[in-house]
Amino acid sequence: MQEKTSPSPEPAGSEGSGGSSGAAGNGPVKPVIPAAAAKRANASVIGMIIALVVSIAAFLPIILMNPLPKSDGYRPDIDVAAVSRNATDVAGFTPVAPETGNSFRPNYARWEAGTGNGVPTWEVGYLTPKESFIGLVQTRNANPTWLLQQTRNAAVTGSRNAGGQEWELRDTGKGEKSMVLDYRGTTVVLSGEAQLDEFAALADAVVKSLESNPAVTVSPSPAAAP
């Protein structure tokens, strides 16, 4: 006789597992945050916002009571007249110190020994009323080469009267101009990209300063011994 084997019964819960897998495949399971944790998170965010508002409210009156100063930028305090007086002994003449009021603002004033080119110079830089720039150079040892260097090799284009004197006008054709004056023993060169009316205003003040200073005289060379 053959023993008849009956089919094994399926393990309990196998159908339930398959059902669960099928249900899981239908879509992602959304995690659920406990109500207490969500409440704590919201409380932290609200606390940060409240702290930020309190900090702003605390510093705002201080900022309002101390407004930022209104300024056109850094303006060096240059006393051209004082620097000119200090340079007189070494220069051998009184360097010009044009009286321009507050219209032309100096941003440097200095005596250059001329060790590079052999021409000692008095130099002042001015910011013009229209926010341009004019550089002033004065010397008693001008020569043609030095003058070409100061005027950027600009050609002579005419003359302009300022302060009762005829200034030689030179123009590079690229915006930069120069006015040159030989007067009372020194040569003065004004150079920059400012407009001619500003050049004329500064040149007028330069002539007044030249006329208020002693004229520069050239000492005669000693006669050669026989």
**Sheet with most strands:** 7 strands, antiparallel
**Spans where pLDDT lies below 50 across 5 or more residues:** 16-24, 220-226
Structural class label = alpha+beta
Mean pLDDT: 82
Shape: elongated
Structure annotation, total helices:
5
Helix % is 25-40%
Strand percentage lies at: 15-25%
Distance between the termini: 165 Å
Q: Radius of gyration, Cα only, in angstroms?
A: 43 Å
Return the string of H and E elements.
HHHEEEHEEEEH
Largest sheet, spatial ordering of strands: 1-2-3-7-6-5-4
Query: How many distinct beta strands?
Result: 7
Structure, explained:
With 226 residues, this protein is an alpha+beta fold. The chain is 35% helix and 23% strand. It has 5 helices and 7 strands. It has helices at 14-24, 35-65, 80-91, 144-150, 196-212, and strands spanning 105-112, 121-127, 133-139, 155-162, 165-171, 177-183, 186-192. A 7-stranded antiparallel β-sheet has the order 1-2-3-7-6-5-4. Strand 5 (165-171) and strand 6 (177-183) form a beta hairpin. The longest helix has 31 residues, at 35-65. The radius of gyration is 43 Å and the shape is elongated. The termini are far apart. 22% of the residues are buried. Residues 16-24 and 220-226 have low confidence and may be disordered. InterPro entries: DUF4245 (IPR025339). The chain crosses the membrane at residues 45-65. Residues 15-25 have a biased composition (Gly residues). Keywords: Membrane, Transmembrane, Transmembrane helix. This is DUF4245 domain-containing protein.
